[in-house]
Amino acid sequence: MIVDVDPLADAPPPRYAVESDEEDEYNPFQQPADGKWSPPEIKIVGKIPANRPLILASGHAGKYWAKGCQLGEQIGGVYVDKIQVGLVFSLETAAVVVSETSTRLPIAFMHPYAQTLAGQLKASSFSLLDIYPTPTYVSSEPIPFHDAPIRYLSTTQPDSAITSSAERFAPPNIVHSAISAALLSHIASTSPNSNATVLLLPFPRIPSPAPKVLENSDFFHLSEDVYQWPVETMDVVHTLLFAAIGEKSDAHWQTPSNINKIHLKIQTRAFNAGYDYLAGRRLTRFKHWASAFYSSGVVVGFVGMIVGLSVLVWITGTSTFQVFIAPYKGSRLQRRDFAEEPGSSFIQPIIPGVTVPLSHLPIILIAVLLCQIVHELGHAVAGALQARIIAAGPLHNLVLWILLNLLTQTALVVERTSGLGTAIISIGWKDLSQEGRLVVGIDDDSPLNSVLHVGSIVTGLDDVSLAVLGNQWSEYLLQNSSENTPWYGWRFARLL
């Protein structure tokens, strides 16, 4: 039977206007029933003090906040069907649960999870931290993401610090995070007089829906951040989390950093304000040229990938030939002075203490840091333009290399024409070819270890001066010698 249909319409009626007994008809899209649903087994492990304020930080916001907050050692965990979902910490002023950092709960598990936390911990007040997606937030005027404020919801009148630093999460918007919504609604329905406040950080994307089943914890992604908020924003929300439970935090939120063996990782958001300013600009002409520039970086990166792989294959083949085939060729007897030098490659590895002096390590680290800043600047600019983000960083490094080479060639041309090129060259390095030869390394078993040091300048061999152009060092040491030739000697004037 068809109802509410315009008889003059040419199109077929919509599906909602067709009344039918669907259970009597074949539906290819019908999903089989999953059977009887059973409630999850939720257990809180550890000696966790009860009747204290509780801070619950969930998801992306909770994981990033926990990295910069001095929580101390973990004292317990929250397990759902024997899978760890929450990490429990204890501060002097409150208990802290960092939830859903390594796995996510299905929708059906949210209410039992919130009920267990509120029932077993018996918290005197609650402070929750979560996110809200700015693309779907409904407001009277559109708000760009970089201007989106921290928002809050509370069962009671919140602290004045919260109302002055955050804005109310207003209807008709809904909280996308089911765990915060479940806990807040549970507290409001069971203990209307309890103080519970949820603080919501702005998030640039719409979160993916909750999974249908609970998956095992994935701790390998704990070091990865989906989004990193500015330090100022995190410090404010850190203060508000404690203000919501009537406490004060003695320490500020700090930029996350970690040291793993010889790997040092430091994260900073000091330049985020400039990036947000760049993202909010609407310079059409600059955007056109910048998009073309970074689009060319994709082509350069693709060609560079092919060339790089080809060079690696060629070097691998050459090295294999030198190791396994070259030693069997040629005469077994040869003069020591004319020993065949190993094949050289146009790619010279820079290994402090091996191929370059260990004293060069600070200079190498500074150079790598500067190159990395230029590299990340490419990602930032291209990201603000929504252009070729991946190729932008290497493209900036390539442009930096071209500029440095142009500076070197310009200095050489100026030196030949006017003699002023030394002033340009002296900015980055010093030419020692007119003084002698620089000692960059000494064998451990060399008798010169007690005399020479790395950084010394050898000015002459016997009576032959090395402060001249050309390879006088090799020519003099590799000349034909006889038994009447006196022992070689070295002169060095000073240490660098």
Structure description:
The protein is α/β, with parallel strands linked by helices. The protein folds into 3 domains: 42-259, PAC-like subunit (Rossmann fold); 284-327 and 345-425, no CATH class; 437-495, no CATH class. It is built from 11 helices and 15 strands. The strands form 3 sheets. Strands 1-3-4-5-2-6-9-7-8 form a 9-stranded mixed β-sheet, sandwiched between helices. Strands 12, 13, 14 and 15 form a 4-stranded antiparallel β-sheet that branches. Strand 13 and strand 14 (464-465) form a beta hairpin. The longest helix is centred in the middle third of the chain and has 41 residues, at 284-324. The termini are far apart. The model is unreliable at 330-343 (pLDDT under 50). Keywords: Membrane, Transmembrane, Transmembrane helix. The chain crosses the membrane at residues 291-315. It comes from Collybiopsis confluens. This is Endopeptidase S2P. Residues 1-34 are annotated as: Disordered.
H-E order: EEHEEEHEEHEHEHEEHHHHHEEEHE
Output the strand order for the largest sheet.
1-3-4-5-2-6-9-7-8
The rough form would be described as elongated
- Measured distance between first and last alpha carbons: 98 Å
- How many structural domains does the protein architecture include? 3
CATH classification class of the largest domain: Alpha Beta
- Which structural category do the helix and sheet elements fall into? alpha/beta
Tell how many strands the DSSP assignment holds.
Answer: 15
CATH superfamily of the largest domain: PAC-like subunit
Largest sheet: 9 strands, mixed
Strand content is: 15-25%
From the 3D structure, determine the CATH topology of the largest domain: Rossmann fold
Report Rg: 34 Å
* Mean pLDDT metric: 75
> Would you identify the CATH architecture of the largest domain?
3-Layer(aba) Sandwich
Runs with pLDDT <50, length 5+?
330-343
The helix count comes to 11
Percent helix? 25-40%
